Amino acid sequence: MTICSSSSSRAVPAINNCTKRKNARTHNSAAFTPLFIRSMAAQKPLPSATKTVSSRKGPRSSSLTTSSPIKLLTRVEQLKLLTKAEKAGLLSAAEKLGLSLSTIEKLGLLSKAEEIGVLSAATDPGTPGALLSLSLVLLLSGPSCVYLVPEDYPWQIALQVVVALLSILGGSAALATSNFVSNLQKSN
């Protein structure tokens, strides 16, 4: 039994009055606590949430499309990539492997590159980020396969080796390509 002091001068054992006051204090003090969460139902919606989606077709105006277009050949010239490829001996190595200009022409590799959209991908600002994400996924898939696949049978070990090698080679190639495309897209 607790004794509550009332506004009068004598102390009266009043359990009901104490609990009522304590409940009133806790309900009133809840509005002043830092952990109090107000209901969001009474709040006004954000202005961005009330906008409707436009069904207009055509070019969108965004900060990415307002930037200057990427001039791929100009950037290749600035980086002197053809000179570097010549000095590195890449052209003669490709010719030794049977990849000459006439072979490229016979195989139709340039038209296939156009169909796939290699040049448009090289000028797309989102390509380096997508390639970087792909490289991270590939580089993480190798160790995760080695960790998750058991080593009970020889074919499981072979699977681990193949997946690890492919993910390391593919991830490294995607990372290098991401860096290369990013450097091509940079402006002075």
UniProtKB/TrEMBL annotation:
Biased composition (Polar residues): 49-66
Species: Juglans regia
Residues that span the membrane, as ranges: 129-149, 155-176
Protein name, entry field: Wiskott-aldrich syndrome family protein
Sequence segments annotated as region (Disordered): 46-66
Key words, A-Z: Membrane, Transmembrane, Transmembrane helix
Record-linked Pfam families: DUF1118 (PF06549)
Taxonomy, superkingdom: Eukaryota
